[in-house]
Amino acid sequence: MTHDPRLLAPVHGSVYDLVMANERHGRPLWNAEQVRALRRHMGLTQEELARELNVRQQTVSEWETGQYRPRGASERLLSMVAERAAFRYDAEGQGSGVKGQE
Question: Under a CB-based contact definition with an 8 Å cutoff, are residues 15 and 83 in contact?
Fold first, then answer.
């Protein structure tokens, strides 16, 4: 049985809206550069970001080196943290800091 991510869009609210579901279905939203850019934008160490996301510091390091990509709950939490920090990110692997600034 194939799962259509658009069916969950109303359940997950603004973080998991129809656009995000479609983008996520095509490719991951978070890559190494974006994770590092978000952490630096927030002025956090890897350990501090790890605590914020309830993961190990080693996990953040693995994301930032490209060894692994965030997925599932971690991917959604990164999106929520980014939104709260006014960090703009997109599916093309670009993180540009404060919304509205290029």
Answer: yes
- Tell me the torsion sign for CA atoms 21, 82, 50, 69: positive
Q: Are strands 87-89 and 95-98 parallel, antiparallel or unpaired?
A: antiparallel
Task: Render pLDDT for 67-85 as a digit per residue (tens, 0 to 9).
Answer: 999 999 999 999 999 999 9
CATH assignment at residue 28: 1.10.260.40
Residue 97 lies in a domain: no
C-alpha 44: how far from its chain's center?
Answer: 15
d(CA 32, CA 36): 6
Host domain of residue 36: 5-85
Residue 88 backbone phi and psi in degrees, to 5? -95, 130
Q: Is residue 36 part of a domain?
A: yes
Domain contains 95: no
Q: How far is CA 38 from CA 2, 6, 8, in A?
A: 33, 27, 26
Does residue 52 belong to any structural domain of this protein? yes
